[in-house]
């Protein structure tokens, strides 16, 4: 039985343009009279979801989902028709008419209202135990040891469950809450007809829905006992797949900044908000879900994954990246130094450093490449192959051909291999995996010649290019790099001259601009610098810089060794005693090569 009259339903329909409503969930692009997007109801690479604005209907040519604006909201939000009409009426600020409900709808609403009421009572109970009772002394000490302020404790309504088997249960039963209700909400457990508290000696994190209503709780132990976290079960008002911890508090900042930061734990969220970083939310002890991704998609165009970078965290990051792929959300991955989680990092280093780390977080492809480079030795062929094998499953799923081409170019530069080899490996992978429906890349003789001609044949090309580009972008690093890489170690004459001009310009003013350098260059040198500056950027972190320094010195020493070895051979053929001197020099150079080769190796 419908709750609303046909006239009211039509009023709500007219007030909710279907294009506007659908746009809150997916990014629509107009083509002709219709609007198109990748379907929000199934995974696809090519947009087959069409919205006819003039007709008020949608249709997916892939999964065949179809209907009007009410059908869209019902399917997207898993709502009944009545709930969908109510949701859209609220969206359009239309007052609901007073009409009769079915007995089932009335019972469900009353049950939900009752559960919200009991959860609110429980939230007050735990919060008061923490702040207004000696029973909460241990919990309050825990939060203070984690540098959580009293204002943040009140804002999150954090609490403490006393070390008691019956305190909450008895108090609530005296107030008319049945043991069965407490069990249904996960606040109590039952054994042989007796009820006892489910949360004991735990700090409590209330979990709210988007409207700020408490739908459940998370409890953390204060010692090493198991389980570390205890969470409320699924109830008519609590579905973990559809809830993000602190989203109600984070929404304003997420909307304002256009960016949401997703972390793993309750304390990661609390710590961030405590230090003024309020666009942070967390999934609820489960893997990040599609429903949670869509909650964030409505608020922000960018998502930063800030999971712990242990093995489990890296796996969770990979799963989250796969879930968000196709939702038209830009994803970046935050990897904090020394294995710290966000809570520890913010506490020890500070919120400004955390914000800087977030701003510098690489996109998902760069993150995967960086992780692979840290895992395998990129200086040996076997390591290069392992790196390509580890990133290829994700690379082969790139939908955007321009992004794909650019990334493969970058990967080739980082690995110091020919781009044609990387493209060939990509083609072999997609050939073995036809289910990806990914087309091969064309590798023509013209492309091979162009790539070779633009770089040259010397093995130091990529290192020279990246050092020059980095110096052009960051003049303040010039003195340090000059100390590590002498001018004479550059092989290519054009790049060597550019490097010398940069050093000269810095020596004059202790800084320089791009114009300062360009004014000193010949036409050929200017062309070479322009070519370098439009190449894909390679982040020059400390590890990469040290690797380049090692490569420069090894290449220089190897050239010296070849030269003196050649001289020794010539002296040997003529019986010249100078051969002993040259052999001694070769031995000395060989020892330097050995020492440089050992630098930075894993112990």
UniProtKB/TrEMBL annotation:
One of its GO terms (biological process) is DNA replication, synthesis of primer. GO terms for cellular component: cytoplasm; DNA-directed RNA polymerase complex; primosome complex. It comes from Megasphaera lornae. This is DNA primase. PROSITE patterns: TOPRIM. Contains an N-terminal zinc-binding domain, a central core domain that contains the primase activity, and a C-terminal DnaB-binding domain. Its EC number is 2.7.7.101. CDD domains: TOPRIM_DnaG_primases (cd03364). Binds 1 zinc ion per monomer. The keyword Zinc-finger applies. Monomer. Interacts with DnaB. Keywords: DNA replication, DNA-binding, DNA-directed RNA polymerase, Magnesium, Metal-binding, Nucleotidyltransferase, Primosome, Transcription, Transferase, Zinc, Zinc-finger. Gene3D superfamilies: 3.40.1360.10, DNA primase, catalytic core, N-terminal domain, DNAb Helicase, Chain A, Zinc finger, CHC2-type domain.
